[in-house]
């Protein structure tokens, strides 16, 4: 299992007193294989955000959309999605061919969804054009398979409610103190949550 944190992550965690919290979140939330709940959440998402980087580490972030179910968890250690016709630049897929490290962010903008954000970091590969699995993904010109290294839901508190247009009540604003999110008071975490900074 690849480490979740490098020296610069750790330096900032130490500066803000959150190293113990970061470690606890990894212990209690991070996993290396998809659960049935992960698969259902991903299947319900009509879009996700894909982060890639080229061989020199220059990043790119892309929106990927389709009908719910266009991204599929095929096994506990495998996810696949089609590449649809786009602008022809092939930034994401070209980057994957040069550097297989990827990050995927799935989100639900509905306040009742659980989880509302799911992050998947792993390695990806681009299929050949004659991949027989492409038949199962109508409209796909290529297929991307992702092997997860780190899967973790994370705090949805800053996500606006797309249905109502309401902004997150957790966003800091002049003259008010936002509420603490519920997860910070959970028994498994509250002893390692650092004090709120002024």
Structure description:
The protein has 198 residues and is α+β, with helices and mostly antiparallel strands. The protein has a domain of 125 residues: Roll (Pnp Oxidase, Chain A). It is 19% helix and 27% strand. The protein contains four helices and seven strands. The chain is globular.
| % residues in beta strands | 25-35%
Shape field: globular
Major sheet size, sense and barrel closure: 7 strands, antiparallel
CATH topology of one domain: Pnp Oxidase, Chain A
Helix content: 10-25%
Question: Can you tell me the CATH class of one domain?
Answer: Mainly Beta
User: How would you state the average pLDDT, rounded?
Assistant: 92
Helix/strand-derived category reads alpha+beta
Number of helices: 4
Task: Give the name of the CATH superfamily of one domain.
Answer: Electron Transport, Fmn-binding Protein, Chain A
> Any low-confidence stretches, pLDDT <50, length ≥5?
none
Radius of gyration: 18 Å
Biggest sheet, strands in spatial order? 2-1-5-6-7-4-3
User: What is the annotated CATH architecture of one domain?
Assistant: Roll
Concise account of the structure shown:
This protein has 198 residues and is of the alpha+beta class. It has 4 helices and 7 strands. Strands 2-1-5-6-7-4-3 form a 7-stranded antiparallel sheet.
